[in-house]
Recover the amino acids of this structure.
DNA sequence: TCCGGCGTGACAACCGTTTGCCATGTGTTG
DNA sequence: CAACACATGGCAAACGGTTGTCACGCCGGA
């Protein structure tokens, strides 16, 4: 079934069929009706590649993540999926395996088959990012680069809350567990942590960096213990959960001996042992907003009046992995 | 940059360029070299939609899941993603929101832009599934229907192991926590459970059905408690984890008062409180295998010699949510 | 010497839509 | 009533590749 068949069946030209089906208002109501009826009758389904070839629009948006395995992305996948489906777009998933080259390479190759892309947490240098944005509409998440629309989750503000929380519990030695150095978020979090601690006239220290992945929790836990701190803020929940496991192994009580707070509030943070105090990030919402921004930017006639950077707030969710500092340690 | 540009640059016909780039052996080594050099030089990137239109092959495979949110699918997403990327295919994600109609509708509409699809856990009746398989190459996971290639995870065999484990711990009242009734897996698991219990001359009972999602754990836990059983096998880990949470709330000790075993060994099962005894399913592998089957079937000249149904084994991972039955309860 | 076959490249016809432009018919305006 | 604007539908040219078929030249075999 092609529009030619429908054209034949209704006695009009293919161009009319095309317009009746995709550009309402361009043909009279009567013929439109007739054509749509015929289309339904013949179970006509448009051919996306043909449409894409002729119009340049593919109806597909890619979500680019550095590692599908990371639970952090689960929320993004979900959020983007929802919003894209609602808008009638298809959802392509691209895993860059943590490699910037892969990232740029894949997007470059696929740019013609995409209407745009959401970058889940780009590892790309700013220059490349801007260059890429010239090839294909982009929205970044948790990565703020001038000239590229972005949505960033304001974890730094949350970090301040977390520090507040820990300080109020009597902690004076608080350490930051650092994630991968190329990670923009990691930098942002560490900066926020330093600032917050300075405000309390406390020394900022950190351990790491550690590669992303739960496995890093082991080394991280040991490093934190070694630092003599009574509390720590981990780069993300995956680290924190990994640490929890290690700490149990070593017989360290959480939070009695050590308080730990995570970041992101991923799946699992609420039922870990003990349940994790963490910065709840609206990841899913971030995905939805990113898609909305991207899509609104795609809307041809839009003179780009949309906001180019939105920041989403986080809040501290206190569970059971944080508690009063051991008084004997002060 | 189109092949026409390359043709012009090298002084050959576009057909030659096309063949030089995609069908090795059809043109002489010398010209091929020249053409490839030019292509590299001009930074030529093929236009997927055009290719798809002309050839019918899209280089895209969809993974269809009933709910992206479900952690069970995370493994599938990962497995399929890996294998597809390795084969140079793009990975489309489709969420059917648990609706069979959605499922059939979406696949029907997108069939022309897909080379095939992996059905993560189809809700479709056998008839529809077979019909759909006629429209587009399909491989199902955890769903066995004659005529449609499939990979199924042999949880039933694992269930037997789980029952063995519980019985050996002295449990006599073991209940199955039932998932959604339309779920093929749920049926299979319940059947296996009944068979295993009968083998031990024990009565098979179940509670539920409950809708999928962690929230069901609450009702499930209460129901199990109410049943007077000393142990239970849950339809999946999500249920089990939800139950664990509820049981803590109610002050029920796991495993002292109640042993619980889950299914699938999803992310989180190892660090829940207590860590969950569960049937470890090779989900990721299932995804990989499904993709391999699909892709090998796509290989034109293949007279379909490939296996049409592979079953993957599971094994019981004993952690801390199962323990001896309370002797006073015997 | 002639012929058949093979390796190589060109020609051109698609694949199924979209869309710019033109022709026609109708309604509106002065 | 004339002139004009506008609404509607048709024509045909893209979009960027793939692929069946044919022509050519060269080779070896008879």
């Amino acid at each position: 079934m092609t529009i030619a068949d429908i054209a034949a069946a209704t006695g009009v030209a293919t161009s009319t069929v095309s317009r009746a089906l995709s550009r309402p208002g361009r043909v009279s109501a009567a013929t439109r009706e007739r054509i749509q009826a015929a289309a339904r009758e013949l179970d006509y389904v448009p051919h996306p590649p043909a449409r894409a070839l002729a119009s340049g629009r593919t109806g597909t948006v890619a979500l680019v993540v550095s590692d599908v395995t990371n639970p952090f992305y689960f929320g993004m996948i979900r959020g983007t999926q929802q919003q894209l489906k609602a808008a009638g777009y298809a959802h392509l998933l691209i895993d860059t395996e943590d490699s910037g080259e892969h990232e740029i390479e894949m997007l470059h190759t696929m740019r013609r088959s995409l209407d745009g892309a959401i970058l889940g947490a780009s590892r790309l240098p700013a220059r490349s990012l801007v260059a890429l944005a010239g090839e294909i509409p982009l929205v970044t998440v948790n990565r703020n680069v001038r000239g590229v629309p972005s949505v960033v989750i304001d974890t730094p503000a949350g970090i301040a809350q977390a520090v507040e929380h820990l300080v109020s519990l009597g902690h004076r030695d608080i350490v930051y567990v650092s994630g991968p150095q190329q990670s923009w978020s990691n930098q942002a979090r560490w900066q926020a942590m330093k600032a917050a601690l300075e405000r309390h006239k406390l020394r900022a220290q950190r351990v790491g960096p550690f590669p992303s992945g739960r496995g890093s929790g082991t080394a991280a836990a040991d490093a934190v213990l070694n630092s003599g701190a009574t509390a720590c803020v981990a780069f993300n929940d995956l680290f924190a959960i990994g640490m929890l496991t290690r700490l149990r192994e070593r017989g360290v009580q959480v939070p009695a001996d050590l308080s730990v707070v995570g970041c992101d509030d991923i799946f699992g943070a609420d039922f870990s042992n003990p349940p994790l105090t963490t910065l709840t990030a609206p990841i899913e919402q971030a995905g939805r907003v990113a898609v909305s921004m991207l899509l609104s930017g795609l809307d041809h006639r839009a003179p780009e009046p949309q906001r180019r950077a939105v920041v989403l707030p986080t809040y501290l969710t206190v569970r059971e992995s944080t508690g009063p500092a051991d008084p004997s340690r002060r």
